[in-house]
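Here is the promised in-class demo. Please do not try to memorize the tokens; focus on the logic of going from shape to residues.
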């Protein structure tokens, strides 16, 4: 589905006028340049998808609309990351992990999961970096000398082990 040249011209003008402002808004919400860039991209995709058009891209109405779109895109990314990170959170006892149910399902909390140190070392290291040290996925990958995809997969597997086999985590 090709966009009309008027729509393309509008999007290009908006990009020229607002890309840096949008990035700053996203960065103020997300505090991460990579995620802020993703938010800007998501916002422009929304503008294209919904065929947004103002007669004057530099008008106050257009500017307000675009700022609202980028703020919402940033908040969506923030909430998605927050939900991913809250699946496993620390309790007052730093040696225990509490898995929290995602907000979409229920507000109830799962029972306490086994101690972090019962996880196999390769999973423990990933959980420690992401949850305890609050490193990003890329920082964790660099520190552990593995790929970002590997970090994500190990974290996913560690969460699954803690949910499915409390007390029976085996070396994998």
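The designed amino acids, position by position:
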């Amino acid at each position: 589905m090709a966009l009309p040249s008027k729509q393309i011209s509008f999007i290009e003008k908006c990009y020229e006028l607002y890309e840096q402002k949008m990035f700053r808004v996203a960065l103020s919400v997300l505090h991460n340049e990579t995620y802020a860039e993703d938010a800007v991209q998501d916002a422009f995709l929304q503008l294209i998808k919904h065929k947004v058009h103002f007669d004057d891209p530099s008008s106050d109405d257009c500017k307000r609309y675009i700022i609202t779109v980028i703020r919402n895109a940033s908040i969506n990314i923030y909430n998605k990351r927050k939900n991913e990170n809250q699946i496993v959170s620390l309790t007052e006892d730093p040696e225990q992990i509490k898995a929290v149910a995602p907000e979409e399902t229920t507000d109830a909390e799962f029972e306490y999961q086994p101690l972090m140190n019962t996880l196999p070392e390769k999973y423990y290291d990933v959980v420690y970096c992401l949850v305890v040290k609050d490193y990003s996925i890329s920082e964790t990958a660099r520190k552990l000398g593995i790929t970002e995809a590997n970090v994500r997969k190990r974290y996913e597997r560690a969460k699954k082990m803690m949910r499915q086999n409390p007390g029976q985590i085996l070396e994998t």
